[in-house]
Amino acid sequence: MKKLALLILALIVCSMLFSQNVQGFKYQAIIRDAAGNVNANASVNMEISILEGTAEGTLAFSETHSVVSNSFGLVNLTIGSQNPSDFNMIDWANGPYFIKIVVDGIEFGTSQLLSVPYALHAQTAENISGGINETDPVFSASSASGITQTQIENWTNKLSEFAETDPSFSASVAAGITQTQIESWTNKLDEYLETDPEFAASLAKGITVTDTAYWNSKLDDFVESDPTFMAHPSAGITADDITKWKALWVWYTTNERGYLTTETDPVFNASVAAGITQSQIEEWTNKLDSFLETDPVFNASIAKGITAADTTNWNKTNYSKLTNAPDLANTTNSKVIKLNTNDQTSSIEIQKSNGSNVFKVNGAGQMMGDGSGLKNVKSLINYVGGNQRFQVQSNYASYDNVRSVVLTVPANGVCFVMASGFIRWESTGWDLYLGGLLMDKDPNSSWAAENEWYSYLNLITDYNCTDSSDQYTSFAQHRCFPVTEGAHTFTLWVNKYNSSSITELQDVNLTVIYIPTGGSGLAPQALMVTKEMLAQKSETVRKRIERSIDGSSEPPDQKLSGEDFETQRSILEDLQKKYGMLEDKLNQLLLEENK
Questions:
Q1: Torsion angle, CA of 420/422/428/429, rounded to 10 degrees?
Q2: What are the tens digits of pLDDT across the range 406-425?
Q3: pLDDT at residue 70 in the model
Q4: Are 510 and 417 within 8 A, CB to CB?
Q5: How distant is the alpha carbon of residue 418 from its chain centre?
Q6: SS3 14
Q7: What is the pTM of this model?
């Protein structure tokens, strides 16, 4: 989840507050987001702490304010109003004191309190008993030292109200200033930058002071007096001249001028000459009067000696007597080339210009060559591996990409993918490695990909390993993917169970082998292992239980080959029960570890 970062732009400590036993001081701040934009009309929680002695000193006071910024992002609060009892207990004589600000859980630093809060310390003078002998030379030299008791009484008895009759003040603009305006001015922003999005997106944003000056200096009216035009003959053309010119043009383009404008000769239209174009006339004019072919390439070739008799004889030749001759009498579009024998002693082949075999087949039906002519039966391989140290960072619903291999396949087939390496357990306690192979999918962005990852999951745990930084567990897992023609990406995605554990994968090798399935002859069949061949090797075909923890579970007693549908379903249900037992055991181990 992304969090909104707030920034305190300015801190203003202002006048002290006294209300019976409640004391405090004002605090103002402007709230901005991480980009520096004002966060207007936003609700924020501000935690205020006062520390004694140093910036990391003893906590003397703390309280939390829930406030809402105004349209300028400004917040106002009184420090001490939420926790007055603790605030009144602060002994300001034990300073210095520091104030720490935390907004919505984000700390914005600590700074020293200077003169304003220490005005509270001055109230301790009210509790002093007995007389005080003033020996302050500065006070003795000031005008205040001459104030008498009578003057104090006169001041005490002064008029509480007084009407100002100053004619100069009454006539000035200041006479209309209200208390509300004074408070608004006091709370004004010392600095503010206008960031109006409407203005920024408008054409007016580009108008400069120079543009405005040009606009103000533009002519309201202007009469063209081009000396070049006035000196030209066209300056004398009148509207009457233009009218007469148009009438002349109408006369010229119609039959009114006294002759035909189009050819309607029926004899010419019916003749061959009617189709002759201007281009053909030019080509006929530029034609050669005589020309003799003297092609030097043809004269130097073998074809020069071929006669009409040779062509006739060639068309009549019967090729059926030739060795390995094609069956030209075949009535279908395809042609059959018959070999002399049914073994390797006869063959037909297609070669490249360099002499290498592109395609070769013998009488035994065996295909040979470099494979470039056998698009649907050529195997491919790609891999990545070597020295690697990969710290697993993700856990639960997020996944790390450890290794990826891209393989471009020429046709439909199956890709066998193998991942191997070892795990280094570096943390104490237990942990769980989870890894799965996917093709062209990312479990971080797709529910379907995540479900598929869980379906082919490999789990390894260090539960029984002694806590040490030198514990290792090797692993190997594989999977087969049906593929279509094109490029495919195969990836090992992993995560871990405990986010705080340190789990490292080392020297992971990822191999992808493409096996074509498009052929139907003896060569593709030889790649397959049949049920009968497996039965000859072992009476019981052992199968690893899918999604077991380490593959060490006992195989089922039944065979998975040759049974009918109901028997196979029974076997699958039995496997599911065993998997459920393993899953319950794992959950039990997790609960015991968390106790």
A1: 40
A2: 999 888 889 999 999 988 88
A3: 92
A4: yes
A5: 29
A6: strand
A7: 0.33
